[in-house]
Design a protein that fits this description.
The structure holds two protein chains of two kinds. By secondary structure, chain A is α/β, with parallel strands linked by helices. Chain A has helices at residues 10-22, 33-42, 59-69, 83-91, 104-115, 151-162, 170-178, 188-200, and strands spanning 2-6, 26-30, 47-51, 74-78, 96-99, 125-128, 131-134, 139-142, 145-147, 209-212, 216-219. Chain B is of the alpha+beta class. In chain B, helix 9 runs parallel beside helix 10 (369-385). The chains are: A alpha/beta, B alpha+beta.
Amino acid sequence: MPILIVEDEPKAGDYLRKGLMESGYVADLARNGPDGLNLALERDYELIVLDVMLPQMDGWTVLQKLRERKDTPVLFLTARDDVIDRVKGLELGADDYLVKPFAFAELLARIKTLLRRGPVREAEVIHLDDLEIDVLKRRVTRGAVRIDLTAKEFALLHLLAKRQGEVLSRSQIASQVWDMNFDSDTNVVDVAIRRLRAKIDDPYTVKLVHTVRGMGYLMERRE
Amino acid sequence: MSTGASSSAGAKARQPLSITARLALLFAVVAVLSFVAVGGYLYRTLQQQMAYRDDAELLGRVTLIRHILSEASSLEDLERKQHSLLDTVFGHDDFVLRLLGPDQRVLLQNGASSASIPAVPLVPADRAPALSDIRDWQPAVGNGRLVSAVGNLGDAGQPLQITIARERSDRLKMLAVYATHLLVGIGVGAALATTLGFIIVKQGMKPLRSVIGKANDISTNRLNSRLSVNDTPAELRELGSAFNAMLDRLEDGVQRLSGFAADLAHDLRTPINTLMVETQVALSRPRSVEEYQALLASNSEEYERVARMIENTLFLARADSAQLGLQCERLDTLAELRRIGEYFEGLAEDGAVTLTVDGDSDSTINADPILLQRAVSNLVSNAIHHTPAGGAVRLSAQRGEDGVDIIVCNTGAGISAEHLPHIFDRYYRADPARSASHSAGLGLSIVRAIMALHGGTIDADSTPGATTTFRLRFKDAAAAQG
């Protein structure tokens, strides 16, 4: 199921499309309001990423006209994060919003959340290579060796493991693990990752936690 | 278009008169009214005086004629004395004298014809005529006064009927002339008063004009101009003071704003410069994929830094103009501090800093959870950053009398007294050499702004070489309202 991107800024539009396609989505791009609205009404998209400041017809109008006929989920992008703007978007029927500038990982995470249908059954035991995470018992083993983690280290590992293959930004990690919901420039997350790595990666040849420079961290098995 | 034009025309029509015009108009009305009142009063008094004197003269003549009659022995004798009788009215053309004999025969008459003289009640011979005996009379032209009395002829006592009348035309003429003069006087006086009033009011309004002139002089780049309040009349002094106070606030605001904009632009230069030069150097010749990747990653970090700077700046701007909507909740301060402590635990351990959290359990406050996190985190992050290895950072919640104090305390070099008053200023850095290494100096400004939004306070205390303490005071709701 494709995603529609409505964005007038040429570079931003191209890179959003490229980024989404490389993340495994099919993405169409409309460069102005009327085109975006026509496409959205003509075809069935699973999600629309809608910029607010558009030529000819602004995002609010597109959203309004779309909502008259369709309930396609809409994630709107705005450079203005006044409370009024945000409230306006949500009142018009947008499902979520992101304020520019945003991290690409953040956009992917939001899209994933919006596309997720129904409650996700969380795995009780997560396997990754020879790492085993028993979520219920809160026990971590690698190979046959039991690894002791603090509560927060476990939460961090659990987050990375259950979203394996997905890049998580520092602020996402801070929010999910420590419930710190603002963007700070401390390197707390980096320190925590380093400590986690010391326990689960450093003694082993196969590394599981990877740094994606400029974006964040992800966990996966790399050949 | 047409509605706009008509409504603006309507607004113009409803525009109130200028104070000068109003006062001048009032002046004119008052002047005309008082002139008319005084003139009318004078006119009336004069008229009454003249009427009285005329009437008194009339009565005097009756008495005189009675006297002449009493001295005549007979009608024949009276014929002879006619001359002296006529003398009484001689020289006054407007006097009319008629003497009727007992048989209603006209003995003597001068002036108007008999027909025009009406019969009026006679004053008996034994009573002196009084003012009340005089009647109005309508001669052929104008009007007049008339009195009739009985006069006894000589000792014989033969009663004769004396009628003496006087036309008032000469007096009327005088009064008419007087009235004309009066009207002209009122007109000229009113015009003069209005003109003078206008000039005086205009003069009186001069200070106001100078205020207006001064106000017109003020623009954003000349905000330091002030009205001189001392040489202004009392009525305008208050306005002037209020105006000056407004200018003070405006100047302060504009100065802060422009300073802020300059600081921001200045602060943006560093990361933008890094990005520009780094990218240009990389592009100057072919590089390996790894080098490109490293460049892009490095750029991404710089971008994030710029984004954060913008976010922080916007946050402060909004906090300043109170555009941030607080979403306050009842929060257990100690629990919040524990969570923040957990967050920074790794960082502290990494720097060999002991991080402890303690406090009173009944320290509930009403605050926005995200903003509280942000404020305390900024302080803790700073504290850890400035604590040397082996030092300690203590986070504490203390229940006070009318609120809760959050204390962030660290050991280390501290802040010297000269810097202490400025640490909450935007972009203020105690150590200029460190300016490029750490993020923009907005952290403490943000903490202060957050405290201001919550109606709380922040203060800092430092003993150089020993400890530095930041104290956030959240007032209880009741205390904050009271």
